[in-house]
Amino acid sequence: MKTKAIFILLFLLFLQPLLRAAGQETARIIPMPKAETTDVVHEWLQRSGFGVSRIHRDGGILEIHALKGAEEWIVRIKPHSPLASDVKASFTVNGAEKNMQARNLWNFLSGYAKGSSAEVEASNTGVPGAVLARIESIVCISAKKATEMLQFSGFIVDATGLILCTAHNLEGIKEVRITLFDGRSLQGKIIKIDHERDIALIDVMASFRTAVPLVGSKEKVGMGERIFSVGCPESLGGTVYSGFVNGAPRLAGNQHLLQVSMKVYPGSSGSPVFDSQGNLIAMVKGRYRGTDSMGFLIPHGTILAFIRDRKGERK
Prior knowledge:
The protein is an alpha+beta fold. Helix content is 21%, strand content 40%. It has three domains: 25-121, TATA-Binding Protein (2-Layer Sandwich), CATH 3.30.310.80; 136-211, Trypsin-like serine proteases (Thrombin, subunit H), CATH 2.40.10.10; 226-301, Beta Barrel (Thrombin, subunit H). It has helices at 2-26, 34-47, 102-114, 129-132, 300-308, and strands at 27-30, 51-56, 62-68, 71-81, 84-93, 96-97, 138-145, 148-158, 162-165, 175-179, 185-194, 199-203, 226-231, 239-252, 255-261, 272-274, 280-287, 294-299. The strands form three sheets. Strands 1, 2, 3, 4, 5 and 6 form a six-stranded antiparallel beta sheet that branches. A six-stranded antiparallel beta barrel has the order 7-8-9-12-11-10. The protein has a six-stranded antiparallel barrel with strand order 13-14-15-18-17-16. The model is unreliable at 4-24 (pLDDT under 50).
């Protein structure tokens, strides 16, 4: 009986962060008054092409209904305090719940409250399921450099605790902070860095359920092929942008980069980029100066070469 009790306790400890993450997907407290929250959610849904209506319910609840084809949002907003709102969201496609989509709503509201310029769409139904399945492997990374706070993206490449990201701006930094998909925060140590390739490897000394496979992913991408980045633009974790390859590989120094038409915001650097089958094809390096719609990617072959070069890896 004692062994069984220990097993149950361990199972509940494992399940707790998953249940917390699931709850966060459907309901949150937003630090804005009810009226403002209602207006910005209404406008966000309209900009994303939904037909929007409002229904007043008992108890001061305002319900926003939004329809676009088979997609439906129901967002319930009520006062939590004079300066905060309780928001509960439901998203369905053909009546089937897709509540992970609520992450887009939380990212939008978080970004709005912080004055973010990153655009987050209300609909991700055009994103293949194989790409959405990678979201749990995406992390947000932050580090302090002198008086400056750095923020960028990364992704788990080994379930034993290894994470890849870009290396620019990491000169002299040894430790970073990692925020996981479920909101947990871990200390990470940079164990390998290559400034020429612009790639760094971080160890968080933790075990994960998922990782982005590197071997067997896609090395060549065709002109015009649709692609998807998943990252943390302006700290908005798990944000997906779609785009396509729009230019031949460019030579920057001794490294080839892919040119793409895709949203790239501050903090997007280090985001993994996938094809429609969820195969890793590249990592976001940065954007073309003066625009947020043209980006440059570090191709899969360069990432694989970095990984295979074993200098400086975990002892």
